[in-house]
Design brief:
The chain is mainly α. Helices cover about 70% and strands about 0% of the residues. It is built from 9 helices and no strands.
Length: about 350
């Protein structure tokens, strides 16, 4: 494999194909290939205490909504009585529902953005390689990517289910050991460090399989499960080449992202400081606090846009490397200018 082309293809596409930037922004808005970013859940709110009251909703000392032991069990079914819910608790429930709706809407928007942006980026890079760098138009890229939208939605849902199953397998020993250790978090973390390390290595290796399957879906016009099968075949046949390409791309992406984000990070920290000062600094005048608040919000907006642009650039760069690696490993020859395969209607 020509690893030099893997590392430089994305940079060439970024420079030549300005039409891919809007779709890179969409893909970045949808998380890019964000399946790698997992965090362990925190169980600090469920740590057993040494008093008579248990934080679990069972056993002795169960708390009522008023933070007092229950005098009697909940009413039996069939009685015309509903336990009183304090206004504060009702407010928290409504807030939780509102947050859940916002998260759901945001997830749907991210899914739609990813399902349009990612195939457009991949197909644009492929077309750039086929035509020797001919400038593409936004309309041309959109027309090529549009048929893949619903297929990408199904692909993303399938992979989400796969990663959630793996996540649950990690959660089970984590939860059981934590409860059994009677709140000794440090001891549990020390015991689970090998498991957690293996889990994240598996996640990274699966993310490479995800990339290969996605490229099979888009570049070969395959349907979801057929693309998964094709991706698995290529993944097994060239495992170490995929791993090395992934390591190189991740290293370059990390260094470039860090160097580009450092100035913006300082800017973002300053915006947060201005916002907090406008809220907490009571000794300042109202005009000064208002100015700090507005300035901090504007600075934060600039930082978010800056980070979004960098994320879009990194998505296009990384996909350029993956498309180059994929074409090399499947033996694709662009000397004859063969058009990319489009999905069947």
């Amino acid at each position: 494999m020509d690893y030099q082309d893997v590392l430089t293809r994305g940079a060439k596409v970024l420079w030549r194909q300005k039409a891919l930037w809007p779709f890179g922004l969409l893909a970045a808005l949808g998380g890019g290939m964000g399946y790698r970013h997992f965090r362990l859940p925190s169980f600090r709110h469920f740590a057993p205490t040494h008093g008579t009251v248990s934080p679990f909703p069972f056993g002795k000392g169960m708390l009522s909504p008023y933070n007092q032991p229950l005098a009697q069990p909940w009413p039996l079914m069939g009685q015309n009585h509903v336990p009183h819910v304090p206004h504060a608790t009702a407010g928290l429930i409504l807030a939780a529902v509102a947050v859940a709706l916002v998260v759901l809407i945001g997830a749907l928007i991210a899914l739609a953005a990813h399902s349009l942006g990612m195939p457009a980026v991949v197909l644009g890079i492929q077309k750039d390689m086929e035509t020797g760098g001919r400038p593409l138009s936004v309309g041309e890229v959109y027309a090529a990517a549009k048929p893949y939208f619903w297929r990408m939605v199904g692909f993303s849902v399938v992979w989400f289910v796969i990663f959630m199953v793996l996540f649950i397998f990690l959660m089970l020993p984590y939860s059981v050991l934590f409860i059994g250790a009677n709140g000794r978090l440090l001891a549990v973390l020390l015991c689970l460090m090998p498991i957690v390390g293996i889990f994240f290595i598996l996640i990274w290796l699966l993310s490479i399989l995800l990339e290969v399957s996605l490229l099979a879906l888009v570049l070969e016009g395959r349907k979801v499960f057929n693309a998964l099968e094709r991706g698995w075949q290529l993944y097994k046949a060239h495992f170490w080449k995929w791993v090395l390409a992934g390591l190189l791309l991740e290293a370059v992406r990390f260094v470039i992202g860090l160097l580009l984000l450092l100035p913006g990070l300082v800017f973002g920290i300053g915006s947060f400081a201005a916002i907090f000062a406008s809220v907490l600094a009571r000794d300042l005048s109202s005009t000064t606090r208002l100015t700090l608040g507005i300035g901090g919000l504007l600075a934060l907006a600039v930082f978010i846009i800056f980070a979004w642009l960098i994320s879009a650039a990194l998505v296009i760069y990384t996909q350029g490397g993956w498309v180059s690696a994929y074409n090399q490993l499947v033996g694709q020859n662009f000397s004859e200018g063969e058009p990319a395969v489009s999905p069947a209607d």
